[in-house]
Design a protein that fits this description.
By secondary structure, this protein is an all-alpha fold. 77% of the residues lie in helices and 0% in strands. Helix 4 runs parallel beside helix 7, helix 6 packs across helix 7 and helix 7 runs antiparallel to helix 9. The radius of gyration is 24 Å and the shape is elongated. It is found in: Cell membrane. Pfam families: BPD_transp_1 (PF00528). It is a multi-pass membrane protein.
Length: 276
């Protein structure tokens, strides 16, 4: 990870210059007053760059991160989006595990519902989020919960598929042994199938948590929101503040990495036998 970060840092400056040279040339040609004479020199000083210079990024981080507790600051809004994402992941996990149990228990249920589950993931979230928000609003469900439900809608599918695959991954010899012991179906699931499914479940959760984060941000953009990364993205996009958009994206990336790291930590705690 450190090597990749160093490579990205080394490539950022030349990529930033290449991306901003064209706009700098057009700005100079328009007669705008800048503290530079050439397009290459102006590439790092544009007020609204395609890719901000490191100094502009640093200023943007300070401007958008303070005061920390302000509803207009990024740390507060990151906390809101993180809460929506975690609640959505929890709902997706419960729904996905329930569906996985049904898929494994009944081949007929699997044949009847799996195509519809796949089809549900092809519906654009941008289209379904406002409709779902309006529908839930008619029943008094507003604010935090609708975004979490939209996040769960995106995230439940990998959990359902991964968990069903995990429940079927138990060793056939072990299943025969459980039958020899006259174990009940509940005992077989508790003692064999569930432990065998945990690696698959946590792999699915790593995919689901990133999907839930994307769903939360899209829901904040697509519905009426007063806080969250999506709200800040929408506001700064309308204001054409490219530096702020880059800072918000960086915060979102850090939040995604942090959430995946939390799932990794939970996996190591729940499945200590799988450590290598």
């Amino acid at each position: 990870m450190l090597i990749v970060a160093l490579i990205a840092a080394a490539l950022y400056w030349p990529l930033m210059l290449a991306a901003n040279v064209g706009p700098a040339e057009r700005t100079l040609a328009s007669g705008a007053e800048l503290d530079c004479k050439t397009a290459l020199a102006c590439a790092s000083q544009l007020r609204n760059p395609v890719m901000p210079a490191p100094a502009q990024l640093a200023q943007g981080f300070v401007r958008l991160s303070t005061p920390v507790t302000s509803p207009l600051a990024l740390p507060y809004n990151v906390g809101v989006t993180a809460g929506e994402t975690l609640l959505g992941l929890l709902l997706a996990t419960v729904t996905g595990i329930g569906l996985a149990l049904l898929l494994v228990a009944s081949r007929a249920f699997e044949r009847a519902t799996l195509p519809w589950l796949v089809a549900s993931q092809t519906v654009p979230v941008v289209a379904i989020a406002p409709m779902l928000a309006v529908l839930l609003g008619q029943y008094g469900v507003q604010g935090f919960l609708p975004k979490a439900i939209i996040a769960a809608y995106i995230a439940f599918f990998p959990v359902a598929v991964g968990m069903s695959r995990g429940l079927r991954s138990a060793d056939p010899l072990h299943l025969d042994l459980m039958r020899t012991y006259h174990a009940s179906s509940a005992q077989t699931y508790r003692l064999l199938r569930f432990p065998a499914s945990l690696p698959h479940l946590f792999t699915a959760l790593k995919v689901a948590v990133t999907s839930a984060l994307v769903g939360s941000i899209v829901a904040e953009i697509s519905t009426i929101s007063f806080s969250g990364l999506g709200k800040m993205l929408a506001e700064n996009s309308r204001a054409s503040d490219a530096v702020a958009l880059w800072v918000i994206m960086a915060y979102g990336a850090v939040l995604g990495v942090t959430l995946v790291a939390l799932v990794n930590a939970l996996e190591r705690w729940v499945t200590p036998w799988s450590r290598r």
